[in-house]
Design goal:
It holds the Pfam family MFS_1. The protein is mostly helical. The chain is built from 16 helices and no strands. Helix 4 runs antiparallel to helix 15 and helix 6 packs across helix 15.
Length: 417
């Protein structure tokens, strides 16, 4: 990771992303807390998260728009728009204004998809193929670190001062990201204008995902695991209550343990990609979730700590493996659509499984459901591991190549160089 940080262009992008990720981390949980405070309703608070996820349905359109513009100016504009979209939250006063939070949450979810789609293309533009895993691993390490402190800090600021300060802090984060990337100098050629129009061009990202063997296997395996991974969002409360016989607040302690595992996973994810390839890293991440879920079916605190460390370890491995695979196996002209389509194909099943888990935990024993999650994710991990040879591990020392010229973006990288 130190190697990629020696590149001045990536250091600027990294600083901008730290600012925007910090804004995201303090905002999401606080929006749900804000709704809960105004309404007293758990279901209305939970609907805030649904409002953020719902715009995933527009992912193909978002990806198509992103691919039609240069990455750097689009990234700047998207961060500026994200900051402006938060402005209406400053008008929220009482229960009658809850609709404003829902609208802003949905628009924020749309901006999140947009930023994710353009970011993959911008990283691909700046970073050589053999350093992509290092760049993605570094960003995941920071994201996992912010998951440890960001949501709690955001909820604390809201409780101490109110939502207005939280909104201003988040807006400042996005504005800072836009200003820092404004200093970035990237030579970008004009994006190619698609020859086709309509649904055919909107679906180009999904078609690429289904036709490229490594990407197809990655999305099938990860998608299968995602169908049950979301169960744990509800099951963890039953585990703490019925298994450990502790108050619901103890979930926060376990989330912090999971965050520690995420930090470790982020630090080692690039090395795992270089050793086993992108699909191998993704397989390791999904597989780690299996024994973690199985361990939670047996309520013992020490075993729960081990399980949450494993669950935390799995997330950055899956994300670094998947993002690096997309960047290396996708032509630059399609990166926005492919990234957005992949995000929708992963987040859609996860959102469905969160709702399904909330229903099932009221009908079945939570231990049985944890065992089901463990069995399915282990099977998904094995399926991915059997396809690890679809990607080639990077061997030898990582070098620091000269920055690429715009013409290099026409080359489709098939692995580490």
């Amino acid at each position: 990771m130190r190697t990629v940080l020696r590149r001045p262009d990536f250091r600027l992008l990294f600083a901008a992303l730290v600012a925007s990720m910090a804004a995201e981390s303090v905002l999401l949980l606080a929006l749900a807390v804000w709704v809960k405070d105004l309404t007293g309703s758990d279901s209305m608070a939970g609907a805030t998260i649904f409002a953020v996820i719902a715009p995933m349905a527009l992912a193909p359109l978002v990806g198509w728009v992103v691919d039609r513009y240069r990455r750097r100016p689009f990234f700047i504009a998207a961060n500026l728009v994200a900051a402006v979209l938060l402005g209406p939250l400053l008008t929220v006063r009482d229960r009658s204004d809850v609709w404003v939070i829902y609208v802003v949450a949905a628009l924020y979810g749309l901006s999140y998809i947009t930023l994710t789609a353009v970011l993959n293309g911008l990283i691909r533009q700046l970073v050589p193929a053999d350093l992509l895993a290092d760049a993605n691993g570094l960003l995941q390490t920071v994201r996992q670190g912010l998951r440890l402190i960001g949501p709690l800090a955001g909820a604390g600021v809201y409780a101490a001062v109110g939502g207005w300060l939280l909104v201003l802090l988040a807006m400042t984060g996005f504005l800072t990201a836009a200003a820092v990337v404004g200093r970035l100098r990237v030579e970008e050629g004009a994006p190619s204008r698609p020859g086709r129009r309509g649904p055919s061009e909107l679906g180009a990202g999904l078609r690429h995902l289904t036709r490229e063997p490594a990407l197809r296997r990655a999305l099938l395996g990860y998608g299968l695991g995602s169908l049950v991974m979301g169960f744990t969002e509800s099951l963890i409360f039953a585990y703490v209550d019925l298994g450990l016989h502790r108050d619901a607040a103890f979930v926060g302690v376990l989330v912090m343990v999971q965050g520690v595992g995420g930090l470790v996973g982020g630090l080692f994810s690039a090395a795992v990609v270089r050793r086993f390839g992108e699909v191998g890293a993704l397989a390791a991440g999904v597989t780690f979730f299996g024994p973690a879920a199985l361990a939670l079916a047996y309520p013992r605190l020490w075993l729960g700590v081990v399980a949450l460390l494993l669950a935390g370890l799995s997330l950055p491995l899956t994300m670094v493996g998947l993002n690096t695979l997309i960047q290396r196996r996708t032509p630059p002209r399609l990166l926005g659509r492919v990234t957005a389509a992949a995000e929708a194909l992963v987040s859609g099943p996860q959102a469905l499984s969160i709702g399904t888990g909330a229903l099932l935990v009221g009908v079945f024993d939570y231990r049985l459901l944890f065992a089901l999650v463990g069995a399915v994710t282990t099977a998904a991990g094995v399926y991915l591991w059997r396809g690890r040879r679809l990607t080639t591990p990077v061997t030898g020392p990582v070098r620091i190549p000269a920055p690429r010229r715009p013409a290099d973006d026409g080359v489709l990288s098939r692995g580490g160089s």
